[in-house]
């Protein structure tokens, strides 16, 4: 049986847990919610873009011909080119490079079609707070939030260690409503603990690994950047040859065959081509390896003669390759198929609920100390971000299907729609006079915005649930998921509305004033939430 903490230790860990959760919680909620959706980025990428639903021509015309077609429209040969090829027999290839300081990303289909849809990419990048307009600093904030989550998890375990087994299953919905929220926070926190630790650690590792390598290059590798790169990444980016004289390289089809000889089972997804058309040209071929757990590989070859420069694949010598592969594979759920992704999706939503209920418990404790103004601002922000992120994501999906497909500014308009919807939701939460209805109104609004999206999707594609063409599993699955989510949000809003009215009726009948937090928090917290933590601390050390 775990020993009780001293009163000083308990208070210290509690303060660290609570303050870390409150400061980092709302952004972590956004990151986990968008990360849950990003688990299905592959399906979303097919759903959002009609060109990804077409029969692939890469196998028919060849990789080199596809690349040549993509480069034909470029005014000059870029120093670095990325070629993304579809997996299976659906979808067209995509080329990505920089020309004149401008990013170019286009589908290779009867010439070049500029990439026009950015919904899945935006949600994926948002889950780690990356955007090209903000640069790298916000990305590092995401890494710091992962570290903060690790601190909150560690202190939370220390606080509840003696009761952690009981709290795994103790859920008492028939008790007072303040007990319901406390139980929910602890049950979801304990059940989701391995998942939360996994994502907090791997997220921080992925963000800060690139920062730590230069920091350790001097003291650990004697300033040898090439050796440091090989030790961490498996290949040296510092040793890449400088641009040289023009030279004819092997075709991508031949280079792919040699990469598959070096790594049997390799299924190429992306090609990174440096110094194309020069004698210093190299080609990195990346993709999964069939039959290997977390099996992803990178094979670098010289383009002129096809010689293998480096291989980073399952079974590569040294622990570094396996460690990185497991860390990245766990974080991006590159195993277990759809079933595991659905489980991770549910655990991510549970983490969001753990964060929000943590805020409500904090608010109850602060209200007991009569610190009302800060409480009300935090309570309204919890609604604005908690429910407002749902509104913003629903508005993003609606804009994605409502805006003209070939409008050049559609990707930027989608991002602005998300930010505007989130900003308006937060402003609505801060300015509303009747805070008690905010939760069900915003959740219900999100459900209503999502409802027409599958039907609107049929404007651009016949492959979905309401389309007239041949159905594709990924497209139909997204349509069904959107309808189920919309129905669940509307049902949740209806249930919250009924709960709020049931809570308000006895107070009105008895002539009582509303509880201090009744207009900010859902009814279950508002009913007797104040003083919960103070009483629990006293009981814990009594």
Name the features.
542 residues, alpha+beta, eight-stranded antiparallel β-sheet, 21 helices, disordered C terminus
Structure description:
- This protein is of the alpha+beta class and 542 residues long.
- The chain has 21 helices and 8 strands.
- The chain has an 8-stranded antiparallel β-sheet, with helices on one face.
- Helix 1 (7-38) runs antiparallel to helix 5, helix 6 packs across helix 9 and helix 15 runs antiparallel to helix 16 (410-431).
- The protein is globular, with a radius of gyration of 26 Å.
- It starts with 6 loop residues before the first helix and ends with a helix.
* Helical content class: 55-70%
- What is the H-and-E element order? HHHHEEEEHHHHHHHEEEEHHHHHHHHHH
Number of DSSP E strands: 8
Average pLDDT across residues? 83
Structural class: alpha+beta
User: In terms of per-residue confidence, which ranges show pLDDT below 50 for 5 or more consecutive residues?
Assistant: 512-520, 523-542
Rg for CA atoms: 26 Å
Total of DSSP H or I helical runs spanning 4+ residues: 21
Given the C-alpha coordinates, what overall shape results? globular
- Major sheet: order of its strands? 4-3-2-1-5-6-7-8
Question: Largest sheet, if any?
Answer: 8 strands, antiparallel
Report how far the terminal alpha carbons are from each other: 18 Å
* Estimated share of beta-strand residues: 5-15%
């Amino acid at each position: 049986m775990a020993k009780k903490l001293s009163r000083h230790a308990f208070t210290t860990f509690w303060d660290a847990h609570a303050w870390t959760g409150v400061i980092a919680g709302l952004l972590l909620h956004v990151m986990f919610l968008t990360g849950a959706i990003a688990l299905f980025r592959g399906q979303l990428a097919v759903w959002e873009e009609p060109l990804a639903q077409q029969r692939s021509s890469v196998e028919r015309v060849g990789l080199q011909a596809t690349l040549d077609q993509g480069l034909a429209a470029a005014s000059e040969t870029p120093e670095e080119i990325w070629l993304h090829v579809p997996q299976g027999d659906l979808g067209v290839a995509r080329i990505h490079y920089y020309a004149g300081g401008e990013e170019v990303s286009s589908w290779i289909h009867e010439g070049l079609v500029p990439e026009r849809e950015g919904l899945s990419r935006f949600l994926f990048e948002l889950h780690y707070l990356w955007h090209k307009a903000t640069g790298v600093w916000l990305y590092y904030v995401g890494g710091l939030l992962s570290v903060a989550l690790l601190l909150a998890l560690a202190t939370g375990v220390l606080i509840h260690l003696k009761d952690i087994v009981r709290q795994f299953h103790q859920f008492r919905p028939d008790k007072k409503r303040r007990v319901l929220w406390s139980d929910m926070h602890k049950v979801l926190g304990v059940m989701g603990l391995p998942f939360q630790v996994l994502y907090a650690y791997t997220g921080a590792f992925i963000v800060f690994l690139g920062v730590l390598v230069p920091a350790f290059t001097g003291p650990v590798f004697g300033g040898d950047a090439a050796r440091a790169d090989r030790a961490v990444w498996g290949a040296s980016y510092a040793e890449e040859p400088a641009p040289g004289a023009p030279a004819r390289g092997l075709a991508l089809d031949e280079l792919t065959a040699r990469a598959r000889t070096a790594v049997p089972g390799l299924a190429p997804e992306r090609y990174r081509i440096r110094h194309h058309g020069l004698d210093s040209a190299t080609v990195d071929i990346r993709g999964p390896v069939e039959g290997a757990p977390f099996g992803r590989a990178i094979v670098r070859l010289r383009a002129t003669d096809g010689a293998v420069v480096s291989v980073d694949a399952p079974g590569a010598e040294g622990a570094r390759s396996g460690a990185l592969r497991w860390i990245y594979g766990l974080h991006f759920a590159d195993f277990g198929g759809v079933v595991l992704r659905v489980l991770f999706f549910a655990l991510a939503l549970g983490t969001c609920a753990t964060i929000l209920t943590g805020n409500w418990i904090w608010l109850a404790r602060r209200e007991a100390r009569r610190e009302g103004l800060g409480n009300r601002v935090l309570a309204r922000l919890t609604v604005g971000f908690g429910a407002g992120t749902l509104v913003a994501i629903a508005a993003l999906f609606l804009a994605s299907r409502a805006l003209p497909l070939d409008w050049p500014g559609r990707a930027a308009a989608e991002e602005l729609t998300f930010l505007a919807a989130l900003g308006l939701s937060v402003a609505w939460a801060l300015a509303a006079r009747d805070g008690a209805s905010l939760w069900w109104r915003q959740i219900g609004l999100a459900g209503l915005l999502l409802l027409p999206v599958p039907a609107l999707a049929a404007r651009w594609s016949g492959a979905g649930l309401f389309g007239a063409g041949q159905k594709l599993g990924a497209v139909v699955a997204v349509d069904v998921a959107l309808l189920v989510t919309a129905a669940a949000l509307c049902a949740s809003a209806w249930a919250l509305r009924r709960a709020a009215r049931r809570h308000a009726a006895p107070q009105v009948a008895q002539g009582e004033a509303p509880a201090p937090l009744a207009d900010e928090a859902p009814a279950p917290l508002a009913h007797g939430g104040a003083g919960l933590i103070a009483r629990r601390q006293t009981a814990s050390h009594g």
